[in-house]
Design a protein that fits this description.
Blueprint: H1 2-14, H2 26-39, H3 47-53, H4 59-65, H5 76-88, H6 92-101, H7 110-124, H8 128-138, H9 147-158, H10 161-170, H11 179-192, H12 206-209, H13 213-225, H14 235-243, H15 247-259, H16 264-273, H17 282-295, H18 300-305, H19 314-330, H20 340-344, H21 347-354, H22 365-374
Helix pairs in contact: 1-2, 1-5, 2-5, 3-4, 8-10, 13-14, 19-22
Length: 387
């Protein structure tokens, strides 16, 4: 009987939905009855093994997630949830991701929580496929009674369901935000600053809209100090950079740059050009600056004019390209220093300009470059750690 239940569950998880939202499918009803019949005869519920065998998560994920459902005495409730999600049309891969991130979803009541949420969303105008796409992005918010109201509000902000989903991929907490105390005051505050409502439809702005109004107000003050104009195309990026980090963290990043030789003017210039450099980790700032100045020989003023250099991966972009150009120069095939141009080219264009034309002169050049992208940076090219 246990093997039969497992086979039916496997079928449920793999099967597409063909049933209306207003009632459960016959297969779902059969599964629930069968689960109830066998749960009493089955051995004690082993949460970790269940998550791996039935939900498809890794053993490491299951070890962490099992603590959130260890109170369950049987698999009847998780079985019902999995069957419901499959019947709704949620792909197995999305179910696996959902369970790994939010294992408590398996503890939800289908009758009292999940089914009513689906009904409310359908009444809002969403199709069953649209609801199925929402589930793995909404996470715990899908179980909230305020889901329909919050979703309706954010749909009006982003203007389309696809944009809303994109915003949720960037910010899963969007649907859990307090509309009256957080979202609406933030929107009003930004509109008072002269921002057009149309900019709020940009998904990345969602990270700003769910911060406290005080955080947004503080960010606006800091942006003004850095001289980023509201008419600048960089203003929205500055808004995100200054909102998602505390003033203390921003100060730490600026101090790192100044410790590395940057003047206040260099910092102002770089932030105006690319506010996102203040979201780069302190470690990356130090590593990239050491490489760019001590190894590649670039001046700080040059880097400040092209701050994107601080965001590039040292391992996968800066060092491999520097090494390739140095090799071509050593072989007398190219007389070109590593600079912004070489670093900023797309991978396709870089290969077309600096690798493919020299493959015959230097057999194996492409392999050398590819291996450089996978290698660790030699210790002598990294900044020394202070004791």
């Amino acid at each position: 009987m246990i093997h039969l239940r497992a086979r039916i569950l496997s079928f449920l998880v793999h099967s597409p939905s063909r049933h209306p939202a207003s009632r459960f499918s016959p297969i779902f009803a059969l599964h629930r009855n069968l689960s109830a019949t066998t749960s009493t005869a089955a051995s004690p519920f082993a949460a970790e093994d269940y998550l791996v065998a039935t939900c498809g998560v890794t053993r490491a994920q299951a070890l962490k997630a099992s603590k959130k459902i260890s109170h369950l005495k049987s698999s009847s409730k998780p079985d019902a949830v999995l069957a419901f999600l499959s019947d709704l049309g949620v792909p197995r891969s999305d179910i696996t991701t959902l369970v790994a991130v939010d294992p408590r979803f398996l503890c939800a009541s289908v009758e009292r929580t999940l089914a009513p949420r689906v009904t409310e969303l359908r009444e809002l105008g969403l199709s069953r496929p649209q609801v199925a796409r929402l589930v793995p992005l909404a996470l715990c918010s899908f179980r909230s009674s305020s889901l329909s109201r919050n979703l309706d509000f954010w749909l009006s902000v982003f203007g389309s369901y696809d944009k809303l989903l994109k915003a949720l991929r960037m910010n899963s907490g969007l649907l859990a935000a307090d509309l009256d105390k957080v979202a609406k005051p933030n929107l009003a505050l930004l509109q008072q600053c002269g921002l057009s409502p149309s900019v709020f439809s940009e998904p990345f702005i969602s990270r700003v809209l769910i911060r406290t109004p005080q955080q947004v107000q503080d960010a606006l003050v800091h942006i003004d100090k850095f001289g980023v104009s509201q008419n600048s195309r960089m203003f929205l990026y500055a808004l995100v950079a200054f909102t998602v980090q505390s003033p203390e963290k921003l100060t730490d990043k600026i101090q790192v740059l100044e410790t590395l030789g940057w003047s206040h003017g260099d910092v102002l210039l770089a932030v105006k050009k690319m506010p996102g450099i203040l979201t780069v980790s302190e470690e990356r700032l130090q590593r990239n600056m050491h490489f760019l100045t001590k190894v590649a020989g670039l001046e700080i003023s040059y880097i400040a004019q092209r701050p994107v250099l601080l965001k590039y991966s040292l391992e996968r972009r800066l060092f491999p390209r520097y090494r390739l150009l140095k090799l071509l120069s050593a072989k007398g095939l190219l007389d070109l220093r590593f600079d912004y141009h070489a670093a900023s080219l797309s991978e396709k264009k870089f290969l077309g300009k600096f690798v493919h034309p020299y493959k015959e002169s230097l057999p194996g050049l492409a392999d050398v470059y590819a291996s450089s992208c996978d290698e660790k940076i030699p210790m002598e090219l990294l900044p020394k750690k202070e004791n």
